Amino acid sequence: MTAIPQRHLGTSGPAVSALGLGCMGMSDLYGPADEVESIATIHAAIDAGVNLLDTGDFYGMGHNELLINQALRDRNRDDVLISVKFGALRDADGGWHGNDARPEAVRNSLAYTLRRLGTDHVDVYRPARLDPAVPIEETVGAIAEEVRKGHVRHIGLSEVGSETLRRAHAVHPIADLQIEYALITRGIEKDILPTARELGIAVTAYGVLSRGLISGHWTASRETKDFRAVSPRFQGENLDHNLSLVESLRGIAADKGVSVAQLAIAWVLSRGEDIVPLVGARRRDRLTEALGALEVTLTDADLAAIESAVPEDAAAGDRYAALQMAHLDSER
Which residue numbers delimit the NADP-dependent oxidoreductase domain (predicted)? Predict the structure, then answer.
């Protein structure tokens, strides 16, 4: 396993690779994936020194956890840290029906996760979204009991606001907050990120390429049948505007001899040692490109040029469709 830079998941969490691998797209939401290539990508990530694998028990209705289990069968479990989200309610047609973060759901979901992953513990366990019917203290308290039992090592949260973060942290130390953060998604900078830093909580940033929108690989003519087909940022004039921002980045990237994706990931890496970007590579070539961001150093002049090309709030359209936005405690 190669040595790559490491960062800590807050003051209470473990050391992890400076980039983590988000495995969702290998099972769900981005259309069909090649299972053999997915496993090869997980292996390549581990061989490169990536030790953080992020999943959710509802990705492919358990398929993603089973995939990770298969990928790790010939690997040392102690070489990786597995972060799991739970609570999203699905149906057989792929529909979404809210969230369940009751203490009973914590115990039940974790039991199934441990069996699917083929492990005796989860390194970081977190509710995928705040359950408005359940006080966060009850959810975190139930996970804390699993920490005491040894089934969970650390507690995380996902897409919650500052008030919820404070309430949860008062019950048990929170290692990290998983939340969307990218050049065109910077809302956390106003209040959530400062609160996390005050409490010693790291950020595991997903959507660092905005679901491929700012990867440099998306074009206005590209059609999609996955969930991006209803994403506001991928619609009509919004898409045209957002891709014009990408073209502004392309010149900066070319001057540095890197790809647009590497520039965008490097920008997130530059925001602080307490931020760990999650890259959703489903193929080895995309993983290799993402890992190249670790070699990119952004100077003050580079950062100023990027800020000029893509100012805060420059993106057109919300990051999720209206119904999904309504479920985000982080947007309240």
Answer: 19-309
Amino acid at 243: L
User: Can you read off the two tokens belonging to residue 89?
Assistant: 């309610």
Host domain of residue 281? 6-331
Helix (H) or strand (E) holding 89: strand 88-90
Q: Which two tokens stand for residue 94?
A: 């792929």
CA gap 200, 61 in Å, rounded? 33
Residue 1 domain-assigned (yes or no): no
Active site residues: 59
E strand map for the chain: 6-8, 15-17, 20-22, 52-56, 81-86, 88-90, 96-99, 122-127, 152-158, 174-180, 202-206, 275-279
Residue range 39-80, pLDDT digits in tens:
999 999 999 999 999 999 999 999 999 999 999 999 999 999
Cα separation values, 51 from 88, 99, 270, Å? 25, 28, 20
Question: CB-based contacts of 190: which residues, under 8 Å, 6+ apart?
Answer: none
Has this prediction a pTM greater than 0.90?
yes
Q: Find the length of the chain.
A: 332
